[in-house]
Each structure stands twice: as structure tokens, then as C-alpha cells.
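Supplementary Methods. Inverse-folding protocol.

Structures were first reduced to a C-alpha cell string of length 646. This string, shown here, constituted the complete conditioning input.
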């Protein structure tokens, strides 16, 4: 509070009549300031006591402090201007200091605190709301006093601006608090994605402009949604999925439903959205596409001038839809959990991601990446493998929930007879490098969308050429890509050692008769002579795809795979697909690995080094007889290495 004696006005009989009105105005302005200059003080105290920390809290605190200072300066400036006018009239006036000081008590951060103390922030918002209501009124009264005193306007705008800022923050903070309060976890806790990009405003670098695109996407802008998918395919921003996750949860239910209804193919493809949301959007899109394509084909087939190319393209899409529907039908059969359609793209080779079990709520998530020759039209076999992995992992650990995903969102090389182009060859790194961008973004989404309070185990399995895609993706997200990698039938992952992948656990399984896996044994020089592309890019690697992962020098741990005698090479391509065979050692070990049951894995240990035999010591030569020694001449004297005194 400002004491009355701080306002000093010395009157003169000569000027009393002229200054009396100004003095009364000054007195009213000081009282007005006394009522409002501390309007933002309590909010400052809450922030100084760590009611909100991290991310946007820093900027909010800075803006709060700036608005408080500007508001107080507005009152101070108004009082100073009126006092100056009194002095110009010949009177004597002095305006008091209209600023306040804040004493901050240190406060302990509550247990389990993860960014925002809901109770304290609720009180802060209430005080901020009060300031938002009273400061505009004070600014209006201040403007009237300045007009009466014939003082130029301006200070009242600083007070009004502080009130407008407070009103805007109230809306934003109340929304954040609502999100926090409806979390299923303890009050004050939230997911990392929400904490970083929803509650704290997402102040991380955003050079691509994802934040702006998300703002537009919320209005139903489909171009903005498509742009987000473009950003996603580049794999450059590891925070994008977390931004998308926070954005989605901050949308109201009506907006979410509108986006799903009007842009299901775009919403269904966004990494970071809940799996259940993506599944619903993608299934709706698939059904709509089936109806639309069927109708279009009927029209084309009745037309004599129908384009054969268009008919062929539409028929391919129908076959792809049928294959996906057949794969989804595996869900909730024979003990399997529901199937979730996490991604779908029709035409060409197509793309999809299908999960058995909700990856957002499970204890363990296994993502399988197939290799050469994979097409959406024949994806059923890869989906069956994912379901087999789910069943095996579930049977080996019935206390945990498992999600097993078949992921195919890259242009896998095809073994056709048309030859290989430089950018499509199975021997070139381009395809794997491009595919790894989408895979890295997909795993970002798995992390961002996973339910709070569960610490899942993320495993990525790469088969055949898919292991090269996995290797590239792991290096794009070193230390965050997965908890473990499993490489089966792998010709290499583009590195010389497992350590370079940036994943704690790397496991390798290789059937002895698998010819594809043994491509890793081909020297880089021989591969180059055959016209391959890997040696041109990685001239220092041991083989066309790097060091063979099954070589113990690579540094990965190896598990036993069913498939004949280890030392007998009798190549057959069926071995390349034997890793999922029922009751095989390979499948049993895969189940244990998915659950982290390493003590149960039948592991192949590296051979103990063979000790190098040490040569027997040479017996000393017999000493010559004494008479020989006396007959030998004395050795010639040798010069000293350093001259005397040197």
C-alpha cells in the first residue's frame, strides 16, 4: 500500500485556485494506482515459487514480469505528468513511487511434480482472471483523469494492455489445466509430449513450420495436414510426433470428429495420434475407397473407350484393399487381440502398418520390418508373421500385454526381371536410406502416443533387406529409436559394429543355410566388381552392407536358430523365411527377446580364442673350457658415446 504522506503537494495562495483541480486529480490517480499496481504480484510469486517450470514457463514468466512493469510504469507516468502540470501552473507537487516489490519465499517442488502444480496454478489463473477484469476498468478511469487534467493520453494504454494480456493467458492456462486434470494419472503429471508441446507451448526449434501447419490443420485445412505428412516422411524432426500428439489432445471432441470424417486418410497417417484414432480413420478410408473404386470400375467397364491403364490401377487397389481386410480379419481370432490399422496407402507397391494389440497401452511393442519383394498386395504373409510373434511372446510371458506390428511404409526393392535402376537396386543403399526416414518417424509416434505411467519395451526387428532399413533408422534416432534391435536373415545394416547403431541391445539370428544372410560375407571388392552400389558409398566396410552381423567381430549377441548343422552350408531360400516356423528354436527365442527374458534365450557364445603355443625356451650354450677362454683375445675397446666432459 502507498502511504498518504508519500503524496506531497505544497500549495501557494496565489496558485491554489488554479491547481486545486489538478491536485484532486493527482490524488485520485494515486489512489487508483494504489488499488491496482499489485494486480500481477501474486502471479509473479507463484511463478517464482516453481508452480510451473520448464518449456513455456520461462517465456510466460518473462512476459508476466514485462506486463507488470509496463502497467506500473503506466500509472507512474500518469501521476508524473499531472504533477508536472501542477508545477507548470506554479504549484508544488511530487508524485510518489507507484511500484511494488515482491518478497519470494522458496517453495519445495511437490512429489511427482512434472512441470505444473495444478493447485497452485489454479490459484494463479484466478488471480490473473481478476487482473484481466479490473485492469481494463482502471485504464478507462485513468484515461478520464488524464483528459480532465489536459494531459496527453498514452499511460492508460499500458494498463489496458496488461489487462488484455492477462485475459489471453487465462484462456490458454485454463485449457492446459483442464488437460492436466483429466489425465488418468496423479494430478500434475502428464505425458512427455503434452508437457513439452501442449502444456508448455512447444518452444523447441521449429524450422520446418510444423507448429503453424498444426494451427491451420485444426481449422480443417487439408493442405496443412498433407504438409505435416510431408514433414513426417523426411524424418528430420524427432519432435514432430510429440507435437502432433499434444495438438490432437488439445483439440475439442467436435473438431477431432470433424477431421476424422473429412480427412480420414490424412489423420490416419499422422504419427503421434492414438492408435485407436488412426485405426478408425484408416478403416473408414478403406471402406470409402472400396466403394468408390468399385463404382468407378463399373463405369469404366461399360465404356468402350475405357483406359486400360486406369482399370489396371483400380483393380490393383481393390486387390490391395482385399489383402488388408484379410489381414485385419486375423484380429480377435484364435486368441489374438484386436488388429489396429495404423497406416494405409493404396497404389503402386502400397504401404501399411498393422498392429495386433494397442501399442499405446501395452508393456512391450515389437515392430517388424520386411525386406526385398514386399508389396501391399501380398502383405498377408508379413502380417501373419507379426501375429505369430505376438502369440509366441504372449505365451512366454502372460503377465504382460504385447503389441506386434507389421510395418511396411517404404518402397522395398523388387526382384523382377527388368533389371535394377541405380535408385531401386537391392544392392544400393538409397532405398534403405529413404525408408529409414519413415521408420524413424513411425517409432517417434509410438513413443509419443504411449500411455503415461507405463514404461514399455520397444523392439524393432529387421528381416533381410529390412534390417538395412532398421540400421539406417537407428542411426537417425541414436539412443531413442528402440530398446533393442533384432536382426534376422540380415546381410548387413550399413555399419561395421553394433555399437554404431546407438541401441543398448542388438541381437542376431541367422540360419546356417540362409543365402541372403550370407551376402554379408561377400567382400566389398567382389560386390563392387559385380556392379553393386554399397561399396561405392561405403568403401571401407567389410561387405556390401557392412560387417556381417552374424560375425562375432560385429559385437551383437546371437541366438540359436533352427536350421541344420552350423558348419554345413547347403543353401536354400526356405531357410531365409524359417525364423517364424512353429516350435522352432528361433521363434521361441524371439518370444523371450520381445519380453526381455534374456536369461531364457539360448545364446550362441563366441568361441574362446585358441591359445597361441609358446616356443620352448632355447637351452643355453655350454660354456667353453677355461683354457679356451684364456686363449681368446681381449675385445677391442669401444669409444664412449659421449666425449669426456661432454
Amino acid at each position: 500500500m502507498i502511504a498518504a504522506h508519500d503524496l506531497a503537494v505544497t500549495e501557494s495562495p496565489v496558485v491554489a485556485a488554479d491547481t486545486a483541480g489538478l491536485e484532486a486529480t493527482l490524488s485520485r490517480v494515486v489512489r487508483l494506482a494504489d488499488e491496482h499496481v499489485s494486480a500481477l504480484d501474486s502471479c509473479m510469486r507463484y511463478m517464482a515459487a516453481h508452480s510451473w517450470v520448464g518449456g513455456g514457463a520461462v517465456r510466460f514468466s518473462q512476459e508476466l514480469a514485462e506486463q507488470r512493469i509496463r502497467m506500473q510504469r503506466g500509472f507512474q507516468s500518469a501521476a508524473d505528468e499531472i504533477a508536472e502540470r501542477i508545477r507548470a501552473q506554479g504549484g508544488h507537487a511530487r508524485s510518489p513511487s507507484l511500484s511494488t516489490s515482491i518478497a519470494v519465499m522458496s517453495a519445495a517442488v511437490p512429489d511427482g511434480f512434472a512441470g505444473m502444480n495444478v493447485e497452485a496454478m489454479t490459484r494463479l489463473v484466478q488471480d490473473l482472471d481478476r487482473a484481466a477484469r479490473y485492469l481494463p476498468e482502471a485504464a478507462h478511469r485513468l484515461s478520464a483523469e488524464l483528459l480532465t487534467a489536459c494531459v496527453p493520453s498514452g499511460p492508460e494504454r499500458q494498463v489496458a494492455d496488461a489487462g488484455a494480456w492477462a485475459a489471453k493467458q487465462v484462456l490458454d492456462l485454463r485449457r492446459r489445466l483442464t488437460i492436466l486434470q483429466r489425465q488418468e494419472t496423479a494430478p500434475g503429471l502428464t505425458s512427455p509430449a503434452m508437457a513439452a508441446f501442449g502444456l508448455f507451448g512447444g518452444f523447441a526449434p521449429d524450422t520446418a513450420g510444423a507448429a503453424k501447419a498444426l494451427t491451420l490443420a485444426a481449422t480443417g485445412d487439408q493442405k496443412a495436414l498433407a504438409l505435416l505428412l510431408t514433414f513426417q516422411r523426411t524424418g528430420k524432426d524427432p519432435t514432430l510426433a510429440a507435437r502432433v500428439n499434444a495438438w490432437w489432445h488439445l483439440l475439442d471432441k467436435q473438431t477431432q470428429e470433424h477431421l476424422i470424417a473429412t480427412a480420414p486418410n490424412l489423420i490416419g497417417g499422422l504419427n503421434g495420434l492414438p492408435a485407436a484414432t488412426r485405426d478408425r480413420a484408416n478403416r473408414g478410408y478403406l471402406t470409402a475407397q472400396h466403394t468408390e473404386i468399385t463404382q468407378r470400375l463399373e463405369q469404366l467397364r461399360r465404356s468402350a473407350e475405357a483406359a486400360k491403364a486406369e482399370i489396371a490401377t483400380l483393380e490393383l487397389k481393390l486387390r490391395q484393399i482385399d489383402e488388408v481386410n484379410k489381414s485385419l480379419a486375423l484380429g480377435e481370432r484364435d486368441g489374438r487381440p484386436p488388429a489396429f490399422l495404423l497406416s494405409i496407402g493404396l497404389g503402386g507397391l502400397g504401404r501399411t502398418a498393422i498392429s495386433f494389440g494397442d501399442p499405446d497401452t501395452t508393456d512391450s511393442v515389437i515392430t517388424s520390418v520386411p525386406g526385398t519383394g514386399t508389396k501391399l498386395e501380398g502383405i498377408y504373409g508379413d502380417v501373419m508373421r507379426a501375429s505369430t510373434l505376438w502369440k509366441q511372446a504372449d505365451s512366454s510371458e502372460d503377465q504382460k500385454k504385447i503389441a506386434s506390428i507389421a510395418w511396411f511404409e517404404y518402397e522395398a526393392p523388387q526382384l523382377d526381371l527388368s533389371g535394377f535402376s541405380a535408385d531401386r537396386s537391392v544392392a544400393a543403399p538409397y532405398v534403405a536410406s529413404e525408408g529409414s526416414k519413415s521408420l524413424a518417424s513411425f517409432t517417434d509416434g509410438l513413443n509419443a502416443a504411449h500411455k503415461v505411467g507405463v514404461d514399455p519395451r520397444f523392439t524393432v526387428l529387421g528381416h533381410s533387406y529390412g534390417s538395412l532399413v532398421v540400421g539406417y533408422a537407428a542411426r537417425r534416432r541414436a539412443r531413442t529409436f528402440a530398446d533393442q534391435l533384432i536382426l534376422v536373415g540380415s546381410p548387413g545394416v550399413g555399419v561395421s559394429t553394433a555399437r554404431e547403431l546407438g541401441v543398448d541391445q542388438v541381437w542376431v539370428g541367422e540360419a546356417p543355410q540362409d543365402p541372403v544372410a550370407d551376402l554379408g560375407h561377400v567382400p566389398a571388392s567382389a560386390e563392387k566388381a559385380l556392379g553393386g552400389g554399397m561399396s561405392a558409398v561405403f568403401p571401407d566396410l567389410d561387405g556390401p552392407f557392412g560387417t556381417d552381423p552374424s560375425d562375432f567381430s560385429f559385437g551383437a549377441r546371437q541366438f540359436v536358430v533352427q536350421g541344420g548343422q552350423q558348419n554345413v552350408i547347403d543353401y536354400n531360400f526356405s531357410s531365409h523365411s524359417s525364423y517364424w516356423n512353429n516350435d522352432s528354436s528361433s521363434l521361441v527365442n524371439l518370444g523371450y527377446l520381445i519380453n526381455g527374458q534374456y536369461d531364457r534365450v539360448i545364446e550362441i557364445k563366441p568361441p574362446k580364442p585358441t591359445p597361441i603355443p609358446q616356443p620352448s625356451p632355447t637351452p643355453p650354450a655350454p660354456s667353453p673350457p677355461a683354457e679356451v677362454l684364456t686363449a681368446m683375445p681381449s675385445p677391442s675397446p669401444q669409444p664412449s658415446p659421449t666425449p669426456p666432459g661432454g
